[in-house]
């Protein structure tokens, strides 16, 4: 029959050995760190801190992040990313670039239902940013 | 017209009472008196030593309630 | 409420950003207006000059555009103050602009002056100015051996500099392989080699190990440039082939010219940091007459007090905090180790043995300073 060992009495030598190993590792890492390495790392950390501070205190950005978090918006963003990745947007734009400009070219574009959808969406966004003008519609 | 200025260097570790006194002495006029207040017991020997080396005058030195009051006069 | 900050150096920038952060909403709503007046559009990390003097940093590493460091709500003008009219709560700038204020913070700092010691400017090298630091590195690099004397003026900013300069000189010449051809002769104005007793006690054996001669009670009086001898008020002298100085300092001329303080040192309350006799004027950093260390860390800790009090006075009419004299200084030793001195009005500094970790922390802080300047760190 084995008697239970108390955690502290059995754990101590192992913990101490681990601490010594950790201290040796830190010491070895310190020996490797030249002033230049420390300076570069610290500079990156410092600028990173400043950037985080700026971003988190920018109320506009924080509101935008909240808006971007909505599921519908995320869906749309993913579709946008996919479209960009697939190149279809670029191809489409390339294909639709009118070889002749002028009034006729503009009319052809305006008849396209997708173009109409895009104009409508843009108009909604612009109206949303000008709450005072909303009533004028 | 000579005047006595109080240099309150109580409870300061850096630059410390003697260096404060040296700063004041530089700006003082010949004949001016300064009363240095210090809670550092070292001042009791450092200040008179410096005054003697540089050639100014130690007027009084006393400890009142744990504070050294050392009055010196700028002589040159 | 109009809050005016005069001086855009380390102290002024930290405190202005501190206040702008605390009152960010009020600034946006137009209830608080924050203005800063400075003599320059550049912000220099002054402790970096020591590294420039030893070739470890370039001048471009230690300077940034002041406007980039300031919180967006701060109106910044490169137009230094020429006249203070405290009774009317106004200042007038060099450009002729009058700024009135409800609260004023003066953080104009101090500068090295050479007129008190004839011959010093011509004969000495110093890491205390930009031109000085650049020139000092060239002299150190070209120095082939001889007597190097270190002389210290009173008062000066960065009290640990004399010790650090000496350690760095020792190491510099060792690395160049000419340490045996160089005699290092350290002098200091008072009875021991540093005004903080624990630092002096720690440094003496270090000096002995490094074979640095030291002489105490040495206040420089004048320099015989031709014969290369520096004479002291105490009647002693030191010969030199290279003279390195921590020059004497004074507050900026504008302070004395406006009768705000003799020698440019403004009489300041130790705890509230208000200018004596002025309820709505605060003094921060080197320009105060407080008998405390003139360091960046002093200004940093003072700015927390002043920042909190200004915000609190705006919101409640009352100040909430007092400055306890806190100072925190790194001390670079040799062999990539450092220690630190941390003290206040009551607790003296305890000096621990130097470690590589502290040196790494100091190296890191040289970069993180810009976060401090922005009021973040």
UniProtKB/TrEMBL annotation, chain B:
Gene3D superfamilies in alphabetical order: TusA-like domain (3.30.110.40)
Domain UPF0033 intervals: 5-74
Coiled-coil portions: none
One Pfam family from the record: TusA
SUPFAM superfamilies: SirA-like (SSF64307)
InterPro entries in the record: TusA-like, TusA-like_sf
Family: Belongs to the sulfur carrier protein TusA family.
Database matches in PANTHER family: SULFUR CARRIER PROTEIN YEDF-RELATED
Designated name of the protein: UPF0033 domain-containing protein
Organism: marine metagenome
